[in-house]
Amino acid sequence: MERYKIIKEVGDGTFGSVWRAINKESGEVVAIKKMKKKYYSWEECINLREVKSLRRMNHPNIVKLKEVIRENDMLFFVFEYMECNLYQLMKSRGKPFSETEVRNWCFQIFQALSHMHQRGYFHRDLKPENLLVTKELIKIADFGLAREISSEPPYTEYVSTRWYRAPEVLLQASVYNSAVVRTSKFNLNYDLRANIKLTVIDEIITIDTLHLLCEADEIYKICSILGTPNQRTWAEGLQLAASIRFQFPQWLCSWDPQRRPTAVEVLQHPFFQPCFYIPPSLRFRSTNGYAATPPSVGAKGAVDQKNARRYSVGPLSNGRPAVNYSYLSANTPARAAGVQRKLELDHQVNMNSCQAPEGNHKLTKAEAMNQPWSRPPPPAAAAAAVRSNGNYFTKDQGPRAPDIAEKLSQLTVGSNRVPSLASDKFVDMKARTHGNTMKRPLPPAGTRAWHAPADPFRHPYEMPGDRAFLPRKLVS
Ligand SMILES: Nc1ncnc2c1ncn2[C@@H]1O[C@H](COP(=O)(O)OP(=O)(O)OP(=O)(O)O)[C@@H](O)[C@H]1O
Known about the structure:
By secondary structure, the protein is an alpha+beta fold. The protein contains 16 helices and 15 strands. It has helices spanning about 40-45, 50-55, 85-95, 100-120, 165-170, 200-205, 215-225, 230-245, 265, 305-310, 315-320, 335-350, 365-370, 380-385, 405-410, 430-435; strands spanning about 5-10, 15-25, 30-40, 65-70, 75-80, 85, 120, 130-135, 135-140, 145-150, 190, 195-200, 360, 410-415, 445-450. Strands 1-2-3-5-4-15 form a 6-stranded antiparallel beta sheet. The protein is globular. The protein starts with a strand and ends in a 25-residue tail after the last strand. InterPro entries: Kinase-like_dom_sf (IPR011009), MAPK (IPR050117), Prot_kinase_dom (IPR000719), Protein_kinase_ATP_BS (IPR017441), Ser/Thr_kinase_AS (IPR008271).
């Protein structure tokens, strides 16, 4: 840990406290989560849910775990640093988010959920405190309760903070699936104004957290939105309720988890039609410091109002473009280089190989459009013009942007070889250093560490779309 300079505490959760820190060697700002429990073996550490699940994720909207360090029986996770969590942001704003902002948050969250489900995990603790924000970018964090979809029930009945629990979890079902992430606060409710919204998005919109006292109150609240279940809409729910002698309040509508849309289905909804994805390597780094060290918002709940207010006046809020579009130009050396690497790796992964393709390969427009990370905008959105200072673009955000696919088609894929990535990412620092396979300095005695692979695009970024990749574990 002596490689890091600790700056200040930025969060305090049930399992760990989170600190803003700087890597003394690289100058990179990171978030270090120090676990409250002691860990007496490395085995125990690498088998933690948070580690096992996060090492399988590689998505721009899932917080990146960079290192795992055990030192003197204490366990540290080194994450990429994010400015604040969504709860802090909501509290600091004092006014509702615009529909465009809500759409952008949701689009990113569902992309991440879709990826997570494709990788075989469900999160089980989605809530605003676990959604981290830097400018217009949002990422899912805290995989401490994540579970493999393929794992066998019964699952523990106590998952997720009560306000965000799915009805079946509130009713103490021990069998549930990834639908828990699309229920309760993440339940889809149809609403006349926006066609679709999530209750967590309700919260984003209204800045009004539901303070409910017990499971019954929560169920009542959900009933008021979804209506009372009946034999046709959720027979299983009635059975669960009967088994604990709970009586539903009499309202209308639907409950069954199986009737809830998946993340992929949600992304197909017309509400998200104006959104499309821009790969990280193409993102603009604004002159006001997209990648600069952000101000800390302090410990959980203690928001620095002055600093936090800055978040609300970001590009998403004012609806006007604050950038130029030069980042898309293949003539810009730095950007072009970044794009080359990204395309190269995506191509490599698509070919199911650990080696980069030999020789140059120029992407055709059709190929560029078919890259897993590149979903073309719907025609309406493209025609309506987009804005270009974030990852996600919507038609109602500003003037016309260049045709991204057109630009991509002009980029050339380089031929640099990528080191083999077949080896396990978990590294016994001592063993590998002695074997001359590591260039990192030897950590202090008693330290073991795992480092994330240097290249964040090691795995393919899968865009949603293939239902076959979304295992729906229905267990009776
Ligand atoms: N990568 C990060 N960058 C900045 N802040 C972070 C980061 N990770 C976590 N935090 C802050 O620390 C808080 C607690 O982190 P986290 O949820 O991982 O801890 P926990 O002990 O698992 O919490 P919980 O009580 O929700 O289980 C978050 O709500 C967030 O405000």
